[in-house]
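idk why but the lab printer keeps eating my pages so im just putting this in chat instead. protein + (3R)-3-hydroxy-L-norvaline:
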Amino acid sequence: MPKILITGSAGQVGSALLPALIHKYGAENIVITIHKTTAVASPCATETLDITNQDAIRAILQKHQIDTIYHLAGMLSAASEKNPDLAWEVNFSSLKNILDLARELKIKRIFWPSSIAAFGPNTPHDHTPQSTILEPSTLYGVAKVSGELLCNYYYKKFNVDVRSVRYPGLISHAAPPADGTTEYSIAMFYAALKKEPFSCFLRADSALPMLYMDDAIKGTIDLMEADAAALSTHMSYNISGFSFTPAELVTEIKKHIPGFAVTYAPDFHQAIADSWPRSIDDSLARHDWGWQPHFTLETMVADMIKQLRVKLNIPAE
Ligand code: VAH
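predcted complex ->
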């Protein structure tokens, strides 16, 4: 049985990955780290951690005899643009800390999330290929491309088994929307259910690749369990579920909540979104390790509303 460390366990991916890993491996085999400002009640051993402190990470890895790491601690695109120096430390330097410790302590396997933010304005925007131009125009994207290159180097030079996917916009009911760009989509559901008017910070026609968190978590665990020989890249795999525009999401939400009212007021997020793909070619992930999303825009909206009605205690009328 693996002994797993999850950094950033209270974040958008961590909040959904943790219950899935507990179900699969048992809470006794999982250790979570949280930032000092976070409060969680978990059945897993919990450690407070400054992810930029390599000695503190080493102590946790040795104390719990960790052999598998899901390194999820990080800042999203908008937060990173607001504080690029901190974002570099949290998003890139912490990854190098983890990879150096994986080499030192012979950690068996590491997962690290890249993002479609690794692509930039001169990357083909439609059906973006696995191997293409990686010239992002955000600090967040620069840290993701740098991280991918570092992962590839540590795999080839030191045989560190680090695996990664380029998450598109992730839609989840497990955690409130964080300070990103695609997170407008999550915030829409909260406003619609609370019957509040919503101002979208993107244009109505800004298509972005998205994925429902249930599919993202299954894909992440599938990649970590894949036969190493089947993996043809140690940069990061393109994955995606579907693409939609804010207007298309509103139309789908209004099938469930007809009175939902949205206005559009593009701000600095628009330039970030415009630099990203409109859709993704994830055929290599499908070929190498059987990536296969199941949710569609329609089934995602239905499940998000169903789950959030329970979470927010807002019964159907
Ligand atoms: C963000 N949701 O908007 C994240 C993600 C591809 C977008 O990385 O910052």
